[in-house]
Structure formats: structure tokens, C-alpha cells
Specification:
Length: about 375
Amino acid sequence: MSAKTETSRVIEASPSWLIERLLAWYDAHGRDLPWRARAGEAPSAYRVLLSEFMLQQTTVATVKSRYAAFLARFPTLEALAAADESEVLHAWQGLGYYRRARALHACARAIVEQHGARVPSDEGPLRALPGIGPYTASAIRAIAHGAPSVPVDGNVMRVMARLHGVEKPLPGAAPELEILAAQLPCPERPGHVAQALMDLGATVCRPRRPACLVCPWRPACRAHRAGTAERLPRQGPERERPLRRGLAFLLRRPDGAILFRRRPPGLLGGMHELPSSPWREETLNLERALAHAPCATGWRLHPETVRHGFTHFVLELALAEGRADGAALAPDAVWCPSGELDRLALPTLMKKLLRLGGVAPPARR
Ligand code: SF4
């Protein structure tokens, strides 16, 4: 162990000391996740790719509950590439941020067409694929291909900020934290170093109440010594998301079927939705919103609304309920019996609206 004690009583640890302690901790306490290779198994680049797409904006607990079903439906990269987009969107239900499902599908097709169904190992070709940014490329390189790369996400930045006592707030501190993480050597086990950092950030160096007493890096951690762990990394002022409003229409036929339409490309593109007025950053004008109703009928306004957060805005939708009276509808109208909603690719927002209208949305499968 090459570590020496500073006058401040913080151990100044060498990168190799940090890695040695981290890997010993990982071998004993690393998480058993379904997409990880077990001891003695070679990692599957497809499984790593799949899990990294799923984990981009979804928690590990949710991905764990959806991963096996998705993999069973698309067991290989080729099977995923050959599927229809609607099938992929349907299987993605419950994971949210459907843009990732479309990017994953496009990525699988590009790998099959341009790389003979082999996930590239170099950063350039990986970054050229749809949906793959610096973090995902780095994770795939390290975990699937054993390349000396340290993927840095919010968890790893938090650990680095605390370990090194970085007081500068995010996002300005991000480049410095990335450099600190990149200084960790990945000698023989780069994939395990990447996964160990992920696990340390998720299970020990948690945002609140970090478990410093069981942390392998405690002797070297400046924030622990200074008692500042819980308030690092410091955050810059939060960006406020604008509020958009609209009116959704829940139209039922006498036989109980409900009217849907498919969303155009873009946000939630290709998914099914209840028709609605445009979503605008202004007070809802009912008269103008009702002009977007799928047909003229006696619309009844529900007293409550639904709120849903997207990355760049918050949406508040009111709900109008009505019964179809045989009036002509737009050609893109899709009628679905309320007992067969699992046939549709329904985003969480639509499930919230259905619940508000007293319709049980399909359970996750
Ligand atoms: Fe995080 Fe505490 Fe470990 Fe420091 S000692 S890295 S604050 S868990």
C-alpha cells in the first residue's frame, strides 16, 4: 500500500492504492445485476449496450424489473435491429424517455449494417452511433471491451467531489471531476473499476447519508474528514422548467372502446396518446382548447388535472370526457377496447390520464 499520512491527518492515497481498495471492496460487495457477466463469464457487448441505454435516465431498480422481459423479446442485436419500431416502443414501456428506445433501435440497426453486428470498441465509431454519448461510449468500452476508460456520471462526480473535497459547484466543476476520475488507473480490470465506481456511488457514497464507515476510501476522503460529505458536490442555482398546459380528450364508444392516436415524430414520437389540444406556456383557454376536440359532443371537464415532468418543461393536462356519437373522426383515430390497452405503447403521462378518467391502465409485463 503506497499511502502516506499528511499533517492534516488525511491520507494522501496514490491512484493504485485507491484502485486496490476499490476492487477489494467491489469483489466483496459489488451488486449482482442481471446484465453483468458473472465470475468467469465474458461480458456480452449487446447486454452492456442494452443496459447502458436503459440506465441513461432510469433507476437501476426499474431497469432490473424490465431488463429480462426486454432481453427475452429481443435476445440478440440482430433480433432488435429486425424488429418494428412499434414493437420496441411497446417493450420499452415502464422505462420512460422513449426517445432512448428509438435511439437504441436505430443504434442496433446501424451496428448490424455498418459493423457486421459487432459493437465497436473504439470511441470514434461508438460516438458516431445513435444515442451514444461520451458516458455510454466510455462504459461500453470499459465493461464490454476491457478498454482503459472511466465512465463518469453524476454518481462518480459525487464520489470524486467528496474524495478530493472539491468545493466548486456543478456544473462548473464537472471538467475537474472528470479529470480526477480519469486519473484512476484501470490496469487489468477496467470493466470492474467502472462498475465498482458505479456501485460505490449508488450504495455507499449516496447523495444523502453516505455510509462513510464502510467506505473503502474513507482514510483518504477529504470531505469525510472535513465533515462536508453530505453537502458535496455543491450545486449551482437550479434551472426552473416552464409550465405548459393543454386539454386531453377521453372519448368512449358505447361498447367501451377508447379513442387514441399515434404521436408524430419528436417527443414521445410513435407512441399512442389521448388526443389533446397543443401544449402551450399559457393559461388554458377552454374555448380554444375544445376546438381541438376529436369530435363535437357534450364534453365534461374533470375537476382534477394531471402533471408530468419532462426534461425541459412540466406539463399540466386537464381532461375532458365525452361519448362518441358517430361523428366523423380524423383518419389517424385508433379505437382500443379498455381491456386491451396493453396492445398500445402508452407513455406514463397517458396512463396517468387514463387513471384520472377511471380507466385501469395496462399493468407492466
Ligand atoms: Fe463518500 Fe464517505 Fe467514502 Fe468519502 S468516505 S468517498 S464521502 S462514502
